[in-house]
Amino acid sequence: MPDYGHELEFGVFITPSNQQAEAVVELAMLAEEVGLDLVSFQDHPYQGRFLDTWTLLSYVAARTRRVRLAPDVLNLPLRPPAVVARSVASLDLLSGGRVELGIGAGAFWDAIEGLGARRLRPGESVAALEEAIELMRALWAGDGAVDFDGEHYRLSGAAPTAPAHDVSVWIGAYKPRMLELTGRKADGWLPSLSYLQPGDLAAGNAAIDVAALAAGRDPAAIRRLLNIPAGIGAEELVSFAVEDGIGTFIVTGDDPAVIQELAEDLAPTVREHVAAARAGSPSPARLEPEAEVAALGVAPAPEPPRVGAPMPWDESTRPHHEPPPGATYTDHGRQVGRHLIDVHDMLRRELEELRRVVAEVREGALTAGAARSALNEMAMRQNDWTLGAFCSRYCRVVASHHSLEDDQIFPHLARTDAGLRPVIDRLTEEHLVIHDAIEAVDRALVRHINDPSDFEPLQAAIDLLTDALLSHLSYEEHELVEPLARLGFYPGQI
User: Residue-wise over 322-361: b if at least 16 C-beta within 10 A, else e?
Assistant: First the structure.
């Protein structure tokens, strides 16, 4: 696991309760008094019990002199990015360069829509966030009037405002596309431990590192931050630092005693032990070799974290194929491998959507019948997730007049490189298992219609599909992206 070598920072995450407004400010002032590095507040404008986050940050900035301040994380769908850019720059100038920007693509969409913003699909919200980051940085650059023509945001001759320092943009990310965006565009990754499962930090770091390397960035340039609940001990924080690369710990700080203990005991202890651990490790580790990413033009997905379902196969028995010595790759072959991952990303997005739909069934916001309709509309239910469908989609792009059988790509690879036959046989077997897992979700939805009181069979079915499909997609990419980049695939290769 990587230690990115970042200087350790410690901050607090204070609930912006409007029932104790002055107490919230006093907690922020205490954090500065005891020497902490950062004070942050969550941003939920639809929450009537909370103070407005940007107003609170401005007020706290006026009551403090040294501590840095950040929203954790700003709700972009309810805040126009050009106005956010102006607000950040203004407060940064007024505070002497103490503002950083934690930002997210949006969550709790019913509440967001209820406050007047347009509901975005998951892919749209990620695209909007990427546009917002580019737009804000253009305004902060201060290089003259800014024009911006995006799908979600537009500017025409907007006047720039430069902040007092280079404001860091930290993204609250959990899912593949958000992690990939973090690796390409962000200055930091800011998840909350309460939303993570074991292994998620490692998997998230790997995804961010791959995206950073593919974009020509040093993964160590991206700070890793973590919101953590009060009560976690020094030993666990040291592990997060040296094994998961966390450089900034933000502790829930609604209790003055917690803030005192963090500054006077926990932070010094963690710094001491991390320094000792680093003394025997002069060079930070890297998960993905840059040469491999450059050679293939794309990086296969890392092994995904698990939701905990029993796997329908023994992963240790999967065959693997090593590329021949001195293998070379073509631009065409790299495009084919990249397109395979594009199709897989579509399937990962569909799986996220399916899990969201099932969660809404559990919460009573959606009927099981409506969930079945959503499942039936998904490509994965139409056998569109197979490599045959990948071939068909790819070849429609490069030569629309050709039509292909679903099974063309496997025979092509097996014929061209006989060593791939065991891998292809295993992938074919796993396709059948995943098909059965998809059907099991549908059967569980039917059962849930008849017995809404028992949700566990449906949850077990969606968890099994999640672990099986994500594991399979990662395995397929690791085994086939390289031979596709080496051997290519053209319409008519049968």
Answer: eeeeeeebeeebbbbbbbbbebbbbbbbbbbbbbebbebb
DSSP state at residue 489: -
Per-residue pLDDT at 381: 60
The pLDDT of residue 253: 95
Same domain, 379 and 480: yes
Structure confidence by residue, pLDDT tens digits, 250-272: 999 999 999 999 999 999 999 99
CATH of residue 302's domain is 1.20.120
| Cα–Cα dist 228/191, whole Å | 9
Burial (CB count within 10 angstroms: exposed 0-12, middle 13-18, buried 19+), residue 456: exposed
- Does 475 reside within a domain? yes
* Per-residue pLDDT, 401: 21
Q: Which helix (H) or strand (E) holds 314?
A: none
Q: What are phi and psi of 70, to 5 degrees?
A: -160, 145
Q: Which residues form the domain of 337? A: 291-308+326-487
Shared domain check, 151 and 48: yes
**Cα distance between residue 106 and residue 447, in whole Å:** 33
Q: How far apart are CA 376 and CA 380, in angstroms?
A: 9
* Domain match, 330 and 400 both: yes
CATH of residue 162's domain is 3.20.20.30
Of 86, 151, 83, the residue nearest 118 (C-alpha): 151
